Amino acid sequence: MLTVISYDIKSDTRRTKIYKALKDYGDWVQYSVFECDLKEQELLKLRHRLDTLLNKEEGDSIRYYHLCAECCRKIERDGGTMPKDLSTVIVKKQR
Amino acid sequence: MLTVISYDIKSDTRRTKIYKALKDYGDWVQYSVFECDLKEQELLKLRHRLDTLLNKEEGDSIRYYHLCAECCRKIERDGGTMPKDLSTVIVKKQR
Question: What is the ipTM of this complex?
Fold first, then answer.
């Protein structure tokens, strides 16, 4: 399942930590937006990790948009990187 | 239909113009993310307007995530504003 994760982090240090944590799980598509193809277990683990890095009193926030296959196909963009195309599977030739 | 619009704009002037354009159409939920409940026609008009404000050569980008009712119900967040709840309709008492 594709999850779009957008974050609003008030301090540069915390934002860098959040960015580094997300880098292990998905594609950085905009300054504060990642697209992550995650299993349920991975999402729980990631969400717990990110939650520990947040300072909600200072106004930090993270939003999780879980997209079904149909909503994934409807992603549109002007400029920036191509949306992740989950419908194509790259089959590596056996040598 | 709820559309999540996230933008990455390199110049403050253009970003302000994009913000002002989006303010007419939906809720500002994070620094560069809006949630807009739009009809097809409104989306086309908004997208055209935003496209004219972009400078793609400088790296500006906008992403549109169109969420079905089921994906709307699954929006999650840590910190920040409540996701738009489209299932509740506020009925004004007739006086």
Answer: 0.84
CB contacts, 8 Å: B71 with chain A: 65-68, 71
Contacts with B77 from chain A: Cβ below 8 Å: 61-64
Domains of chain A: 2-73 (3.30.70.240)
**Nearest CB to B61: which of A8, A71, A77?**
A77
Query: Residue ranges of chain B with pLDDT lower than 70?
Result: 81-95
Concatenating the DSSP letter of every residue in chain A gives -EEEEEEE-SSHHHHHHHHHHHHTTSEEEETTEEEEE--HHHHHHHHHHHHHH--GGGT-EEEEEEE-HHHHHT-EEESSSPPP-TT---PPPP-
The CA distance from B95 to the nearest CA of chain A, in Å, is 39
Which of B32, B47, B63 is facing A80, going by the closest CB pair?
A: B63
| Per-residue model confidence as pLDDT tens digits over B38-60 | 999 999 999 999 999 999 999 99
